[in-house]
């Protein structure tokens, strides 16, 4: 009898991309916002999870459950402690959308360095003549700038490869130096505070952990270079939103590109959504879409199914999470 997998992936995405369920697994689907029907949960040997919360209550309804696979790298939607306590193996799926996220970072940096938000509104609001205040010293090429990469995982390495041909000087910080990556990608390691003081562009691709939550606070933002741009595609709670708001209004930052937020979706009164209009034009917002292109999503889903097959075939499973990941 084939193992039963309950997939929580959006049926709309799956259908539009022409993705088919594996023939060697029995696949059930649930992508509605309502609670999962108890009969579906009870039948499942495995869950394939997108952004659907998998908490202790749902796990309790799934006595047959042996394996949970996330489609992306994040796993905060899964109550890992509760799953491990029940003997359920949990795996995440990093790296398959790194190229997509890296391209988003290049887009974001250019948008801010070329002051496109301000330029867009100047034209729409009948202030075309303000081009004189935008051009020349106000606009910057990537060439010759210093780009600080915070977090040299899959995304950070993909970004380094994309950014280097623009002529940027690449800096990076992570907990442990990677000498091989430095040599291969032309990177220079700096402690975090030194990187922030030197970089014109700072991109952050960090997971949410006890060590990273709230890392970017007033203490770090005041160390950043005047006119720098700040890009976050990791997890929103790595940033103190109130501190980022102050850094945008009072300096030293010129602007920011935010694909993630500490609360998703953010409340309408969120401190980063209620910036003064002239400051908001220097912020590029997106609703956590940097890594969900058609190509990336296909690769993520295919890799997730492959890992589920490994589990049920008794083969080594990739990217298994443990208590150390809580």
UniProtKB/TrEMBL annotation:
D-isomer specific 2-hydroxyacid dehydrogenase NAD-binding domain segment(s): 109-290
Keyword field: NAD, Oxidoreductase
Entry-linked Gene3D superfamilies: NAD(P)-binding Rossmann-like Domain (3.40.50.720)
Glycosyltransferase is among the record's keywords: no
One GO molecular-function entry: glyoxylate reductase (NADH) activity
InterPro entries: D-iso_2-hydroxyacid_DH_PdxB (IPR050418), D-isomer_2_OHA_DH_cat_dom (IPR006139), D-isomer_DH_CS (IPR029753), D-isomer_DH_NAD-bd (IPR006140), NAD(P)-bd_dom_sf (IPR036291)
SUPFAM superfamilies, alphabetized: Formate/glycerate dehydrogenase catalytic domain-like (SSF52283), NAD(P)-binding Rossmann-fold domains (SSF51735)
Residue intervals of the D-isomer specific 2-hydroxyacid dehydrogenase catalytic domain: 41-321
Pfam family, one: 2-Hacid_dh
EC number: 1.1.1.26
Coiled coil regions in record: none
PANTHER family linked: D-ISOMER SPECIFIC 2-HYDROXYACID DEHYDROGENASE CATALYTIC DOMAIN-CONTAINING PROTEIN-RELATED, D-ISOMER SPECIFIC 2-HYDROXYACID DEHYDROGENASE FAMILY PROTEIN (AFU_ORTHOLOGUE AFUA_1G13630)
Family named by the database record: Belongs to the D-isomer specific 2-hydroxyacid dehydrogenase family.
Protein name, entry field: Putative Glyoxylate reductase
């Amino acid at each position: 009898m084939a193992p039963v997998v309950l997939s929580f992936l959006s049926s709309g995405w799956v259908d539009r991309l022409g993705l088919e369920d594996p023939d060697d697994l029995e696949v059930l689907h649930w992508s509605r916002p309502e609670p999962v029907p108890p009969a579906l949960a009870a039948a499942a040997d495995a869950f394939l999870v997108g952004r659907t919360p998998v908490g202790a209550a749902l796990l309790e309804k799934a006595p047959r459950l042996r394996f949970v696979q996330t489609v992306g790298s994040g796993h905060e939607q899964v109550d890992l402690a509760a799953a491990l306590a029940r003997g359920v193996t949990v795996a995440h799926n990093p790296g398959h959308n790194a190229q997509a996220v890296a391209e988003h970072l290049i887009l974001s940096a250019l948008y801010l360095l070329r002051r496109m938000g301000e330029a867009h509104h100047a034209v729409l609001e009948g202030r075309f003549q303000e081009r004189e205040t935008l051009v020349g010293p106000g606009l910057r090429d990537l060439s010759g700038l210093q780009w600080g990469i915070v977090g040299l995982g899959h995304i950070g390495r993909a970004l380094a490869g994309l950014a280097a041909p623009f002529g940027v000087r690449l800096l990076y910080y992570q907990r442990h130096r990677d000498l091989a990556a430095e040599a291969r990608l032309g990177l220079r390691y700096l402690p975090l505070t030194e990187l922030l003081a030197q970089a014109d562009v700072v991109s952050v691709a960090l997971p949410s952990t006890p060590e990273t939550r709230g890392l970017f606070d007033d203490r770090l933002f005041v160390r950043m270079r005047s006119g720098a741009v700040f890009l976050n595609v990791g997890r929103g709670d790595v940033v103190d939103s109130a501190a980022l708001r102050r850094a945008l209004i009072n300096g030293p930052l010129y602007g920011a590109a935010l694909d993630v937020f500490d609360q998703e979706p953010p409340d309408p009164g969120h401190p980063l959504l209620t910036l003064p209009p002239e400051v908001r034009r220097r912020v590029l917002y997106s609703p956590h879409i940097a890594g969900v292109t058609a190509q990336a999503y296909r690769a993520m889903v295919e890799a997730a199914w492959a890992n589920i097959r490994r589990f049920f075939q008794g083969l080594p499973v990739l990217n298994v999470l443990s208590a150390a990941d809580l």
